[in-house]
Amino acid sequence: MKSIKVILILIFPALLLSQAGDIFSGSRAWYHLEKQIELGPRYPGSPGHKKIQKMLMENGQALGDTVIVQPFTGWNPYAKTFVPLNNIIVRYHPEKARRIMLSAHYDTRPVADLDPDYSRRDQPILGANDGGSGVAILLTLMELLKENPPSIGLDLIFWDGEDMGRPQHNHEFCQGSRYYAGNIILPKAQEGIVLDMVGDADLTLYYEYYSMQHHPALMEKIWKLANELGYGHIFIPEIKSYVYDDHVPLNEIGGISTINIIDFAYPNKNHNVWHTHDDTPEYCSPYSLEVVGNVLLHWLRQQK
Ligand SMILES: [Zn+2]
Predict the structure, then answer these.
(1) For 220-230, what is each residue's pLDDT tens digit?
(2) Distance (Å, rounded) from C-alpha 68 to C-alpha 83?
(3) CATH architecture of 22-302
(4) Which residues are found with C-beta within 5 Å of the ion, ligand 1?
């Protein structure tokens, strides 16, 4: 009998903290990752790019309070052409002034410039991790938010034109977030999180340098929460590298305090498949998506 009492005492607070079914499923996020892979490469101008825009808009209309498509013109330095781009913004409680932002890029890279096979470097990549992983987590969160809406305002943003740049040309990357940062749809979020490359099967998440410069309190909060949820082996509270990603224009131009959750060593420091034709589901895992998604879900539920 004694052991039963102990179990009841332990379970009861856990039930109070979360509503039934409000659990982030890695297998559901994996479904959303595979759905994107089925569309093929999703670089601006490709058939897959049009298809994913349609998919995101349909999901946003079914699951969010409002969907806003923000069109603008981007530049592809490889093709040397202007391209029509669209940020897709799914809003919850669009009237609320207190709001947060979660975002990820949905475009994939038009070239595989780091592929070991030189003859295929001019061909587009599938972007399972680089593009697919962040979107898969946001779509899964949207399904949970439909059942249990957030209590504060929330903008879930799918960036376009993040990955068209040439190496060392930072201004050619992050075109969607830079456009948004100069054309913010009000009310403006006070803080935000960018997800990028979070599906790596060999996942290790370190503090990222620019994020620590701009919003150290949120970095520390997220890594502490991850540790409390049992993910201390993945979320390591040490600065490892700096990454020019969508959070940089959001902080520097938009004034939205934003951090980046990214595992830049894909799959690890001894082997790279980033910006190659091996950025496929084979190097990703449902568990990694679940870990990051679960941390974000808990953080969202804490917001009042
Ligand atoms: Zn990339």
Answers:
(1) 999 999 999 99
(2) 19
(3) 3-Layer(aba) Sandwich (3.40)
(4) 130, 163
